[in-house]
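Order emerges. For instance:

***
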Amino acid sequence: MHILFLTDNFPPESNAPAGRTFEHCREWVRAGHQVTVITCAPNFPKGKVFDGYRNRLWHQEVMAGIRVIRVWSYITANEGFVKRILDYQSFMLSATLAAPFVRGVDVVVGTSPQFFTACAAYLVSRMKRIPFVFELRDMWPESIKAVGAMKDSAVIRILERIEMFLYRKAARIVTVTHAFKDTLISRGIDGTKVDVVTNGVDLSHFAPHAKDGELVQQLGLQGMFVAGYIGTHGMAHALETLLEAAQTLQKTPGAENVRLLFMGDGARKQDLETQARAMGLGNVMFLDSVPKDQVVRYWSLLDVSVIHLRKTDLFTTAIPSKLFECMGMGLPVLHGVAGESADIVRREHVGEVFESESAHQLVAGLMRMRDQSDTFASYQRNGLAAAKRYDRKNLAQTMLQVLMNLKGKAQ
C-alpha cells in the first residue's frame, strides 16, 4: 500500500504533530508499506529555516525509509493571524501542485492543527480518485477564538463552513481524542466514519533517565527540586500562571530549593521572559529548544512536569501529547488541563490535577510532590506502567488498519 501524507510539520522539527507523523509513518514503512510525506522546509516555531535546509520548490530526502518531499511555502514566525494564514495557504497550494508527481498512491492523509493541509489532501483525493483521510488534531478554527487570536466574524464563519465541508467529504476522520469524536457527532457528522487514535509515546526514545550530571552542573541545579514546562510557549498555554506560581514560591519559607524550568519557543516566549525579569524571579530558568535527540537529556532534569493550557471549554477536549512522554520517562505530572486528559491522569494515577490558571493550586501541588516521597514514587511507577498502554507502535498499527480498509475505494 502507498500512503501519501500531507503535513506542514515534520522532523527535524520536534513539536507534537511532527513527532506523531514521523513515528506513525516509520512504523508503516516497517510494516512493509510505501510512505511519501509532502511537507515544507523545517522552520517551526521561530519561522526560520533550519540549518542544512533551504526554502525551495522541491527537495527530496529519505528518513527512516520514508520518502520526504519538501516544497516551498511562505515562512513566517508564529505571530500574526494574517501571516500565519498565508503560511498555511501557501503550503496548501504547493502540496497540491506537488502531489501529481507522486505516482501509485492508494490513500491520502491530511493532518491538522489547521485545516488548509486537509484542504490540499481533499483536492489531491479528487485528482487521483483515492480516499481522503482527515487526521483531526485540533478543533480549528474554534481554537483561534479560544485563545483570543480572533473574535467571531465573517471570516471565522467562512472557515467553519470549510471545516464542515472537509468533515463531510473525508472517507474517514481520525481524531486524537474521544471528546473530538463526540463533538463531531454533535455537529452532525456520521460517527461511524470517525476513528480515535490517541497520541502516545515512542518508548524506544522516552524512557527513565538519571539526571544528566553535566547539565545539572552547567545550569546550577545541584540539590534542586525542578519542575519544568517543556513545549511550545504559545497563547493557548497561559504560562503566566507558572510565573505567578514562581513568585509565590519565592516568598514561601522552605521553598528555596524549588526551580521552574521553561524550555521551548513560541509566540509568547519573549513576553514571558520580560515578565519574569520584571517580577524579579530568581527561581525561573528559560532555555531554547534543542534538537530532538537532545530533548531527553533536558527531560531528565525534571522531578515534575507541568502541563498547562488556558482555561476554556475547548481545551477540555484536548490531550497534550507530552503527558504520554512524561509517562514514558516515569515523570510525575502536575496537570493544569480539565477534561479528557485530566481523566487519564486520575485513572492512571500518574500525577495530580490542578485547576487551569490557578497558581495557588499549582504551588500546593509542587510542595506536595516535593515533600511526600512515597506518593511521588508511586506516580513514577504508575507512569511507567501506563506508558505501555500508549505505545506509539501499537497506535500506529491501529491507524494503519483504518487506512488499509480504504485501499481500492475510489473517492
